[in-house]
Design brief:
eight-stranded parallel β-barrel
């Protein structure tokens, strides 16, 4: 069995790391490159950098950030935000990204995911899905969670897998930033219906939440932000806890 992954997510706005609650009320958390270096030294398995205002503001990804991260880190990292073409993705790859994440652009043009997978291979393509549970149905949102769509989480995730996505990064908007645990029931359903890895996002607050997301939620990886940024949980201690709990993680 593949080891479960711990991923630190860095939402970037105006060159700084930020974090909010349910995608609102952002507060600054530090320099994204320095934070990335610190997490790498602490043993995090991967990093995800998301330029959270790129789509809303119509900006392209900041290539200088990608270049700085690639020069300073040796662990894999994913870049997302404002990627709307194969050319955008290719530039990010040239500057050093290991994977790219698409969200709003995939909803707008699902063929983009097929094109990216064909050009670069599915291992390069992460499809991020931000969804909110409304009246017992998970509704996909775009533009940093600001725009609801007519898409439903499970059918959309399945289509993305069929189009060539290598991983699905599912963020529960209901759980994001509240630190009360992940959306494990929905994650388990996703993990059972898909053959590609599922990354859980939204809700990490205690070490036990990570154990639960790997056992009850059946996720392949767990992503967190604020609990790492503001020192609530240290990555080495989290990994030691998970190993004691018989979860297969890298030391």
């Amino acid at each position: 069995m593949l080891a479960k992954r711990i991923i630190a997510c860095l939402d970037v706005k105006d060159g700084q790391t930020v974090k909010g609650v349910s995608f609102e009320n952002l507060r600054y958390a530090g320099d994204p490159v320095e934070l990335g270096k610190a997490y790498s030294e602490q043993g995090v398995d991967e990093l995800v950098y998301l330029d959270i205002t790129a789509t809303n503001e119509g900006r392209k990804q900041i290539y200088s950030l990608v270049e700085s991260v690639a020069k300073n880190l040796s662990i894999p990292f994913t870049i997302g935000g404002g990627i709307s073409s194969v050319e955008d993705a290719e530039n990010l790859l040239i500057y050093g990204a290991d994977k790219i994440s698409v969200n709003s652009a995939a909803v707008k043009n699902p063929q983009l995911v097929s094109d990216l997978a064909k050009k670069f291979g599915k291992q390069f393509v992460v499809v991020a899905i931000d969804a909110k549970e409304i009246n017992n149905q998970w509704i996909v949102h775009t533009h940093g969670g600001k725009k609801a769509t007519n898409l439903e989480l499970y059918s959309w995730a399945k289509e993305m897998e069929e189009r060539g996505a290598g991983e699905i990064l599912f963020t529960s908007m209901n759980h994001d930033g509240h630190q009360n645990g992940f959306a494990n029931e929905s994650l388990a359903k996703l993990s059972e219906m898909l053959t590609i890895p599922v990354i859980a996002s939204g809700g990490a607050g205690e070490m036990e939440h990570f154990k639960d997301v790997f056992t009850k939620g059946k996720a392949d990886a767990a992503l967190a932000a604020s609990i790492f940024h503001f020192g609530k949980i240290a990555i080495p201690e989290l990994k030691q806890y998970l190993i004691k709990e018989k979860i297969n993680v890298r030391p």
